[in-house]
Specification:
Elements: E1 13-17, H1 26-40, E2 44-48, H2 76-87, H3 90-103, E3 107-110, H4 114-117, H5 120-127, E4 132-136, E5 149-150, E6 155-156, H6 164-169, H7 177-192, E7 200-205, H8 208-216, E8 224-226, E9 247-253, H9 262-268, E10 277-281, H10 287-294, E11 300-304, H11 308-317, E12 318-323, H12 333-339, E13 345-348, H13 353-357, E14 363-366, H14 371-382, H15 385-402, H16 405-419
Parallel strand pairs: 1-2, 1-3, 3-4, 4-7, 7-8, 9-10, 9-12, 10-11, 12-13, 13-14
Antiparallel strand pairs: 5-6
Helix pairs in contact: 3-5, 9-14, 12-15
């Protein structure tokens, strides 16, 4: 590989570091969208990630590290190797160093690196005196329980709840006390040795809520900027034009996990007219339980996974999109994507979700875990099409105001310049 792959310009050379390089999660979608924006603006951009057959093609994949699947429990030597990699990945350190020798970036932007890549990549950047910026997508910087969710008690955890043993008792990692304990100890070691904070010059978060959790956990507030995530549909005007007509159905889109609160939406059906229709997009471990809740109720339709552009069109058709999370959602990008389609949203008052709606008339904020309140909010939208249309227009304008991709890019590049 030679310098011929670089874009010939006077702009920046940027490496994005994230464990995935395919549409696995919201962080991956954000990283890839930001990379496209930066490339379109004339910057030279390269990824560093794990190998995976689902990855997008890139000439930089020769430097990627071996894949690590952490969903299933492992024992013995394999468990030891996973823990050692989470503590410090020698493979990531060596390969990242080789990549930086070739690419020679001006800035490194890291995303989720914790278990799969480890802070070893930060040490390489520090040795080479390359500034590092980090986008914090969840709570993994603060806790091995990166959702701050206590499944056994069905509640969100506070900063006071994320001690070593309290975190281990949640069995968040692979449903195992020992696996969660091991990762929490490793994370505490990372913090004690300041492997993150000494290398990262600036952090960005999507919401004030996440920023506040970081500050409560000991991060210097001066090192954090809150930048609402940009709305990718606004990069594709043909699928983000306000819809002219809505269909009378309620849409949920997201992972089918207990903390996403889909069961609250299904329970709200008891208080809604028999004509109410709900479409659920997504897959996840809670799917069978949710289907058992509705039984043979034909008002609910499970559609499985729906890809981005197709999902955005479905959002444009929906009367309302509901985000009923009962955990402290770091942001809730799906709500912003729905608002891009001039579709009003109903969001739970949890985490960063209310910040998306703000003080606008773009949607309704309801208490989490309250099916009656959710049902009343849904009825307010479905029973008054004129009001719903006004809310939809407000939603579109709010999305344009807080989710503008070019404004987000400008703010990110300004942070880079300050750190360089």
């Amino acid at each position: 590989m030679t310098d011929e792959v670089f874009v010939k310009n006077n702009f920046m050379r940027i490496v994005h570091v994230h464990k995935y390089f395919h549409s696995r999660d919201g962080a991956s979608r954000y990283e890839r969208g930001l990379m496209r924006l930066q490339e379109e603006a004339g910057n030279a951009v390269a990824p560093f990630a794990m190998h995976d057959e689902r990855n997008e093609p890139t000439p930089w994949s020769e430097y990627f590290v071996s894949n690590l699947e952490t969903k299933r429990a492992v024992i013995g030597l394999s468990a030891f190797r996973q823990a050692a990699r989470a503590l410090w990945s020698r493979e990531a350190e060596k390969k990242f160093d080789r990549m930086l020798e070739v690419f020679r970036p001006d800035i490194i932007h890291v995303h989720n690196i914790y278990t799969h890549l480890s802070p070893s990549v930060l040490a390489v950047a520090k040795r080479r005196k390359i500034p590092v910026v980090m986008t914090v997508h969840d709570y993994a910087l603060m806790s091995a329980n990166y959702s701050l969710w206590d499944e056994s008690n069905m509640r969100s955890m506070d900063v006071d709840d994320i001690g070593v043993l309290a975190t281990a008792r949640t069995q968040f990692i692979k449903g195992s006390f020992l696996a969660t304990l091991a990762l929490e100890i490793i994370l505490k070691m990372h913090h004690a040795l300041k492997w993150y904070d000494s290398a990262i010059l600036h952090y960005t978060t999507y919401s004030n809520f996440v920023r506040d959790v970081m500050v409560q956990s000991g991060t210097d507030e001066k090192k954090i900027s809150v930048l609402h995530a940009f709305a990718e549909p606004l990069m594709h005007p043909n699928v983000s034009t306000p819809a002219k007509a809505k269909e009378p159905f309620v849409l949920f889109a997201g992972r089918l996990e207990s903390y996403k609160g889909v069961h609250v939406l299904l329970e709200a059906l008891r208080y809604l007219p028999s004509t109410t229709r709900i479409k659920i997009v997504g897959v996840g471990p809670d799917e069978q339980r949710l289907k058992s809740i509705i039984g043979k109720d034909h008002r609910v339709e499970f559609l499985g996974f729906v890809p981005g552009a197709e999902l955005w069109k479905m959002m444009a058709q929906a009367a309302v999109v509901v985000v009923p999370s009962i955990w402290n959602e770091p942001y809730g990008l799906v709500a912003l994507e729905a608002m891009c389609q001039a579709t009003p949203v109903i969001v739970a008052k949890s985490g960063g979700l209310p910040e998306i709606v703000g003080e606008s008339n773009a949607g309704i904020v309801v208490p989490p875990s309250d099916p009656r309140a959710l049902a009343r909010a849904i009825e307010r939208v479905l029973d008054d099409p004129d009001r719903a249309m006004i809310m939809g227009h407000a939603a579109y304008e709010r999305a344009r105001a807080i989710g503008n991709p070019q404004e987000h890019l400008a703010k990110i590049m300004e942070i880079y310049s300050r750190c360089g």
